[in-house]
Amino acid sequence: MEKSGRYAIFADAMMLLEFLGFLRMSFADILDILLVALIIYQVFRWIRGSSVISSIFMAILALYVLRVVVAALNMRLMSAILGTVLDVGVIALIVIFQPEIRRILTKLGSRYRITTNGNGILSKIFGSTDSKLGSEAVKELTEACRSMSLEKTGALIVLQHETRLDYIEDTGDRIDANINRRLIMNLFFKNSPLHDGAVIISNGRIVAARCTLPITEKTDIPPSFGMRHKAAIGITEETDADVIVVSEETGNISFVKGGQVKRISNINELKLLLTNSFAEQKKEKTAQKPD
């Protein structure tokens, strides 16, 4: 009796699967399903830090699954309504969440970027730059940080590597000047019109000031970290840039790389970190050049 009941359940399940058309699956269909599942998983990983975007993504996914089900059941009216909602909704979400989408794409590009020697066509297409920071520039930069630390002048200095920061520079004022300690100190002077925001350094030059940086969405940040530290963590999470932070309250200097904050104990340590950071980048590019 139990066996006949099991056979009946199995037969019903087989009929249902055959009705939905899932039995006639080729290798391409299986590969298609796996790729879609992988894409959904990766997208969810990228947006899981934002509860709002995660909720919207799950809602869209649920609507899409519902649309597939009603289409399989040949419910034409419901399928048409869901299709219209999804088509219009996706366009609306792209417009509404443009900054968040750009942040996700920037993070994706930073992780899987194509590294070149900086002189070819690919470097121009994919935005790779041959960023460098000479010893004299390091000296001027660190001396400016030392002076601002002693005077407790808040500062936020972004050092670009390979990932271009054009969209960050567009939020401020472009300068294009040599790295000079007096210029840096004047930029962050409290009464200066350019002191509020970040200074961007690219290819050994100051290229912009008063720039707005993305704020990290981390919740486990120490209470002693202010908005400058949160902005520094945010931009280093999205790109491969390094950031120097000078606290206005304590005068402490911090070096931020890859979302990790390191407190600087003396100015020589900062010089070493800057030198090593750009030396590592140069070494990676040299190793990737063809013989």
TrEMBL record:
UniProt keyword list: ATP-binding, Cell membrane, Membrane, Nucleotide-binding, Nucleotidyltransferase, Transferase, Transmembrane, Transmembrane helix
Protein's GO biological process: cAMP biosynthetic process
Gene Ontology molecular functions: adenylate cyclase activity; ATP binding; diadenylate cyclase activity
Enzyme class name: transferase
Bilayer-spanning residue ranges: 21-44, 50-70, 77-97
Catalysed conversion reaction: 2 ATP = 3',3'-c-di-AMP + 2 diphosphate
EC number per UniProt: 2.7.7.85
Matches recorded under Pfam families: CdaA_N (PF19293), DAC (PF02457)
Domain of life: Bacteria
Presence of keyword Isomerase: no
Domain DAC: 98-269
Keyword rRNA processing: no
NCBIfam families named in the record: diadenylate cyclase CdaA
PANTHER family the record matches: DIADENYLATE CYCLASE (PTHR34185)
Oligomeric and partner information: Probably a homodimer.
Function: Catalyzes the condensation of 2 ATP molecules into cyclic di-AMP (c-di-AMP), a second messenger used to regulate differing processes in different bacteria.
Family per similarity comment: Belongs to the adenylate cyclase family. DacA/CdaA subfamily.
Protein's recorded name: Diadenylate cyclase
Gene: dacA
